[in-house]
Structure formats: C-alpha cells, structure tokens
Design a protein that fits this description.
The chain has seven helices and four strands; from the N terminus they run E-H-E-H-H-E-H-E-H-H-H. The protein is an alpha/beta fold. It has helices at residues 14-30, 52-59, 75-79, 89-98, 109-116, 124-135, 155-174, and strands at 2-8, 35-41, 83-86, 106-108. The protein has a four-stranded parallel β-sheet with strand order 2-1-3-4, with helices on both faces. The chain has a single domain (2-180), classed as Response regulator (Rossmann fold, 3-Layer(aba) Sandwich), CATH 3.40.50.2300. Helices cover 43% and strands 11% of the residues.
Length: 184
C-alpha cells in the first residue's frame, strides 16, 4: 500500500483537514484504502483533537475529521511514507532536518499540485517519480507555496483553508489517470 504523510505544525488544523480531503480525493480516484494517508505535526499537540473550526469547515466539504488525534512528526513516520506533503516550506525543512534523504519525496501541497498539473500518471508512485524529476525544472518561490495557519482566526478563515486544500487535493489526485477513477 502506498503511504502519504501530511505535515503541519500542531496537527490540529491544516494537516488533519488536508489528510481527510486527500483521502477522499484518492479514494474517489483509486478506491477506498488504496492509499494510506496520515498526518503529524512538527510541534504536534499529541492526542489533541482538531479545532472545532477545522472540523466544521471540513465537514461542510463532506469530510469528517472529528476522530483525528494529533501526533508528533518522527523519523519513523517519515521513513514509512512514500510521499510527504507539507503545508509550508518550513515544514518541508523540518522533514529534511529529521531525514535529509526524504527530501526527494517531500513537497509542499501547493508545490506538488503545481508540478503535476496537466500531467497524468498510472499510480501515486509514478506521480511522485514525475514530481521528483520536474522539481528541478520548475524552481518556485518557497514562500508562495505556504498554506497559512488559521489557528485563532474566524471560521471563515478555516472555510477558505478547507476550500483551498480541497482544490489542491483534487488537482493532485486528478493527475492519476482517469481510467483508474472510481465512481463516487
């Protein structure tokens, strides 16, 4: 099974939302459970639930993250992931600090979506390989790749974050060939 690890800071807003939205996007494309998706935080609030605003904003998009519990990013979690998707370039650097050899499979979510837009791959492994080869061809402003942290902001900020992550998840999953699509 292919494994995706999503990383943010506290693992209570962005990464659990992205985890749920990516899971739905991949399940629709490949079938339930073909891609294992989990999340962690660089300063994870171990055992904490997502914020009420994250739960609500993601639920409004049809994804339930209420049972999620925060966990801390570890070298073992990185080692077990085929693809690591971060919310910011700072999180990407944190992954590299723990496991430098993971850099070739670590992307911010915006970076990955931009790299794979307009391409197709037979599966997630092929998508990661494609992204890896294209990264060097498409230098990007790392600050433009960040998904802002909504912690402490009003519900509308969480809604905007969820809409953005939903779009990015769809674009990433959409790069997998349509022939693999499973009806929703």
């Amino acid at each position: 099974m292919t494994s995706v690890l999503v990383v943010c800071t506290g693992n209570v807003c962005r990464s659990p939302s992205a985890e749920g939205l990516l899971r739905r996007a991949f399940d629709r494309r490949l079938g339930d459970g073909v891609v294992e998706i989990s999340s962690a935080g660089t300063a994870g609030w171990e055992g904490s639930p997502p914020t009420a605003e994250s739960i609500r904003a993601t639920a409004e998009r049809g994804v339930d993250i209420a049972d999620h519990r925060a966990s801390i990013l570890t070298a073992d979690r990185i080692d077990g992931a085929d693809l690591i998707v971060t919310m910011t370039s700072e999180h990407r650097a944190a992954v590299a600090a723990l496991r430098p050899e993971a850099d070739d499979r670590t992307f911010t979510i915006r970076e990955l979506a931009a790299i794979v837009d307009g391409t197709t791959s037979a599966d997630l492994d092929g998508l990661v390989a494609l992204a890896r080869t294209r990264r060097d061809d498409a230098p990007r402003d790392p600050w433009a790749d960040d998904v802002a942290d909504p912690l402490g902001m009003p519900l509308d900020t969480y809604r905007a974050m969820a809409a953005d992550l939903d779009d990015l998840a769809g674009r990433i999953a959409g790069a997998i060939v349509a022939a693999a699509e499973v009806p929703s």
